[in-house]
Every structure is written in C-alpha cells, then in structure tokens.
Amino acid sequence: MSKSVNLDVVLEALKKEKIIKEDAVWKDIPFYRPKPNKDSPDGYKGRVGIHEVLEVSSTVKEMILKGSSTDDIEKVAKKEGMMTMLEDGIFLVASGITSTEEVLRVVSE
Q1: What is the pLDDT of residues 58-102, one digit of tens each?
Q2: Burial of 68 (0-12, 13-18, 19+ CB in 10 A)
Q3: Is the pLDDT of residue 3 over 80?
Q4: Where does residue 42 rank: exposed (0-12), middle (13-18), buried (19+ CB within 10 A)?
Q5: Taking a C-beta distance cutoff of 8 angstroms, is the pair 104, 31 a contact?
Q6: Integer Cα distance of 100 and 25 in angstroms
Q7: How far apart are CA 22 and CA 47, in angstroms?
Q8: What are the structural domain ranges in the chain?
Q9: In angstroms, rounded to a whole number, what is the distance separating the alpha carbons of residues 100 and 42?
C-alpha cells in the first residue's frame, strides 16, 4: 500500500486532527472490519465521502497558467500537503469510519 499512498502524510493528518496520539506509529493504529448485524447485514451503515481537494496555491496557479502537466501539478500539490482520494480513504480507515476493502473498492471504480 505504501507504493500508492504516502503513509507519512496520512499519519500526520491523523495526528493533526487528534485522532491518534502525537507519538503513534502505524503499528499502534487498529484497522477495523465491518460487523454485520440485523440493521446492516453487510456491516456498513450510511455513506461517507472520500475526497481529493486541490488547493490552488500561487505555485499551482502559475503551473496551471503555464499549461503544466497534471502529473507535475499533482507532484507540487502533494508536496504542499494535498491528500489523494486513496490517502483520504486510508485516513477514514484509521479513524475507524470504514474498512480498507471498502476504500479500495470505491477508489478503484
């Protein structure tokens, strides 16, 4: 998973939002699985969005105006702290909101 996701960015976001302790590492974070019950046979209830938001900083704006490639813009945006949809999904998994399987299913569609 670390080939597709910058786990350091996700870990820092979890710490920033105070979802995990400041000194936590990945092995300390439980990954939950859905538990089927009478109200939700598949173990999921409701919906939650997985998002990828590009903040148009002055650097990104200049790149857009110059016609830079989407790959180059994405690299700069990631350096500036943007989380991809997959990274946001892993953030939700580590927060106990959904499962890894569900994130991978949704993001790969």
Answers
A1: 999 999 999 999 999 999 999 998 999 999 999 999 998 999 999
A2: middle
A3: no
A4: exposed
A5: no
A6: 18
A7: 29
A8: 7-108
A9: 14
